[in-house]
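Async update (no meeting this week)

Hi team, since we skipped the sync, here's where things stand on the single-chain job. The sequence we agreed to prioritize is pasted below, unchanged from the tracker. I ran it this morning and attached the output directly underneath so nobody has to dig for it. Comments welcome in thread, and please keep replies under the output.
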Amino acid sequence: MSHEPILLSDALASFDALWSPRIVTRVNDYDVRIAKVEGEHIWHVHDDTDEFFLVIDGELHISLRETEGERTVLLPQGAVFTVPRGTEHKPYAPSGAAILMFEPAGTLTVGDRHDEVPDHVDSTTGHALDP
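Output:
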């Protein structure tokens, strides 16, 4: 991890892969990850952790399957949202977005339970950010 300031715009410009997060820093035992996203992710669940989203650029939709039924939250640029642990969810960005996520180090991007992972989704615990 760098001990220097990191410009998120520079970090985002350093890679092109979609749904393939980069770890920009670590806070205690949590990764701060950024990702470029477009199209759909997959339905998945993180059984033991919440998942925090901040939309840096664009617009992100997150569909949720909750006890009360299914709903979708819309996150414009600058919005934050936390998916509670154990909630099945599917992020998607029809026109593309850049996002920041905050979650425990080692958390798999496709959760603990998920649909089949298509080729365009990177099943990872995050990649190191290239200097």
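Quick observations from my side:
The mean pLDDT is 93.
The chain has one domain: 8-116.
Reply here if anything looks off.
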